[in-house]
Amino acid sequence: MSTPEAFSARSWLFAPGDSARKMAKAAAGPADVVLLDLEDAVAEDAKPAARAAVAAFLAARPEPERHRLWVRINPLDGPHALADLAAVLPARPGGIMLPKARGGDDARTLDHYLSALETAAGTAPGTTRVIVLVTETAEAMFSTGTYRGVPRVVALSWGAEDLADAVGASGNRAPDGGYGFTYELARSLCLLGAASAGVQPVETIQGDFRDLAGLRERAARVRRDGYRGMLAIHPDQVDVINTAFAPTENEITEAREIVEAFAAHPGAGVVAHKGAMLDRPHLARAQAVLAAGERR
């Protein structure tokens, strides 16, 4: 089974599962992960046809390419999730996005479903990875720390639109245009939950896909906070996200110097570097930068 530490992706691009054209365009682009959407992007009466279309799209792609083609299914507590999984698992998507999760138990239930369907399809158990949307319901806000050790989960992300609906809010933005307190709290809880679970935190979408300058600023800000990737709703957003979440040459150089400083003093808990005293957390962050640089 793949471990959370082995996985990283900067850009996660949604493509509606009822549009073969948009799925093909997304798959042909530079997104690290393409999320073929069976949930919000598909109307209720169109879900059976979209389910079949996504399965056919996956089956038609070369198998090595499918590792980056994931599927957002419908919520586990609704009528569509099992049908979604039964349709797409034989085509071996790279992963599943679980929306409106209520906590780690939902992700564990999904693991059981996936194991059974992988076995039926002749796929090695544990192959299919999972990203969980962890703040889309009010209940879920209290359980973002329950994903530690849950099989298959490699990333957590959050959502502001469904959360606003769940709490009966008329909007999720403050007067200055930023998210209101509840939604900034959701962002923080997702980040902390991912850190606790040892998986990748992924920032939610930016709805205004034309504002690439704003996207660039926001991506840089959340990366400083600890996020390592971001959801996208339009292909034009992908290059901005990929660049924002890749370390710069200066960052790579600085990280390499920090790693070398610790290597020169084996066993040391603190080393001097450019007039500052650095401890083990600095080493861990430097190692993470170098690992990200290798994946660019």
From TrEMBL:
Q: What is this protein called?
A: CoA ester lyase
- According to its UniProt record, what is one Pfam family this protein matches? HpcH_HpaI
What molecular functions are annotated in GO for this chain? Answer: lyase activity
Q: Which residues form a coiled coil?
A: none
Q: Where is the HpcH/HpaI aldolase/citrate lyase domain?
A: 10-235
Q: Which organism is it from?
A: Actinomadura parmotrematis
For activity, the cofactor(s) needed are: Mg(2+)
Entry keyword annotation includes Magnesium: yes
**Any keyword Cell membrane?**
no
What keywords were assigned to this record?
A: Lyase, Magnesium, Metal-binding
Q: Which Gene3D superfamilies match?
A: Phosphoenolpyruvate-binding domains (3.20.20.60)
